[in-house]
Amino acid sequence: MEKKDWNLVQDCLNGDNKAFESLVDKYQKVIFNIAYRMTKDKDESADITQTVFIKAYENLDKFNASHKFFSWLYRIAINESINQIKQGKKLDNLDHDYVSNEKSPEQVLNENEKSNDIQSALLKIDVNYRIVIVLKHFQDFSYKEIGEILDIPEKTVRSRLFTARQLLRDILIKKGDIKK
Amino acid sequence: MMDNTYLQLIHKEVDGIIEPNEQAKLYEYLNENPEAQILLQDLKQTANLLDSVEAVEPPQHLRHQIIQQVRVINKYKSGKTTTVVSWITGFFAVPGPKLAYAFALGIVAGIFIYALLFTGIANKNPLNNGDLTGTIGLDNSEALVELKNIPVDLTDINGNIRVKTLNDKILIDLNLNPIRNANILINYEPSDLDFFDLKPTEVSKSSIEIDNGTINMTFYQKSSYLLVFQKLARKTIPIKLSILSDEQIQLIQNITIPRSDLF
């Protein structure tokens, strides 16, 4: 485990709440993004992020120090996202206003459209494929790290990722986002 | 049908993790297989599209909300561990319960002595107890009483706030729907009341700051909460409740909790 995270977890277990705030600062954006890419709903994603940190806080004493803290946290995030998806929450909101950037309105519109197409395509594939795409392409994890987070062999990660990309490619061709 | 080995190499090429010897092998294969070339191009475009999607910013209130929830958990945990201890110390610290139990014990002992001295009582018709007088037990509980129902119908927020009492607890039931962010301030004397618990009663979005004698809740959308306070004083307890929007006071309500000896 990364030394800094380890120290923060230990400080937190010793009653230092500021240490937990540092962990929130470090990981809240990533967790929110994982949830958002899994559910495409900003409110659900905020709820999931909150639940992830509360569960992590309540179970810090059960955290196995031989694992990476972020793997543990991301696994909670993925499980929570899957739980939300299983509960059949609404998944098709378009959150145009959520990407903060300073671009021309045309650029923002085009990118939002493309981003929404990709997000919609993501929601059409099975959740097990969606997870590996989110971790690989949106969080830039290696096959090995994805395997650790999902607790599956690297070979399975590769197989799922390849299938997922081919499924997305077919959907994006149909939508006209991939030019032939 | 494409050979799985080359399919694997195509994906490794897409991810930029292909070894030079594997790359040479792949490009040799691609030269002879236009179908594989198209697949590589499509998958590269797919990967580029996925990589081009920008990260979204979490809502600004999220961090605050998480930290406040953690504080509430800590508060709840510390309250929970001291409940039994504080109940026992509280029980022996005040004379009321001791006297009540002593009185009840005296009554039971009196009935027992009466039965021993006048054995004929056992032969009497059990329904004919007109010669027995006195009190056997005391009902030491209050019902849930609503003290105030405050309808909120303001430009920026609507809903209602209900203040109730139950034995030694004061319950403030907040059902509020803000048009834009609104703050609810609850001020009280810390020696009169202890903030005991916070229960979201439905999907709720708000943050809470608890300071000495002040609770500041920010409502971001329609939310319902039940705030629970424990009475610490046997006297009339004043609570001030304010609603603010854009840092401007929209409503002030002074609530008086009547004196209660039943705790």
| The top level CATH class name of the largest domain in chain B | Mainly Beta
Topology-level CATH name of the largest domain in chain B: Immunoglobulin-like
Q: How is the biggest beta sheet of chain B arranged?
A: 5 strands, antiparallel
Q: Note poorly predicted spans of chain A.
A: 89-101
What's the order of the H and E elements of chain A?
A: HHHHHHHH
CATH homologous superfamily (4th level) name of the largest domain in chain A: RNA polymerase sigma factor, region 2, helix turn helix motif
User: Of all protein chain pairs, which has the greatest interface, and how many residues does each chain bring to it?
Assistant: A-B, 48 and 34 residues
The number of helices of chain A is: 8
Task: Report, as a whole number of angstroms, the end-to-end distance of chain A.
Answer: 45 Å
Provide the CATH topology of the largest domain in chain A: Rna Polymerase Sigma Factor, Chain: A
Number of separate domains of chain B: 3
For the secondary structure, the number of strands of chain A is: 0
Query: What is the second-level CATH architecture of the largest domain in chain A?
Result: Orthogonal Bundle
Describe the structure in your own words.
In chain A, helix 6 (127-138) packs across helix 8 (154-175). Chain A has 180 residues and is mostly helical. Chain A is elongated and about 60 Å long. Chain A has helices at residues 3-13, 17-39, 42-58, 69-86, 105-124, 127-138, 143-150, 154-175. Chain B has five helices and ten strands, in the order αααααββββββββββ. The longest helix of chain B is centred in the first third of the chain and has 33 residues, at 61-93. In chain B, the strands form two sheets. Chain B has a five-stranded antiparallel β-sheet with strand order 1-2-3-8-5. A five-stranded antiparallel β-sheet of chain B has the order 6-7-4-9-10. Chain B is an alpha+beta fold and 263 residues long. Chains A and B meet through helix 2, helix 3, helix 5, helix 6 and helix 8 of A and helix 1, helix 3 and helix 4 of B.
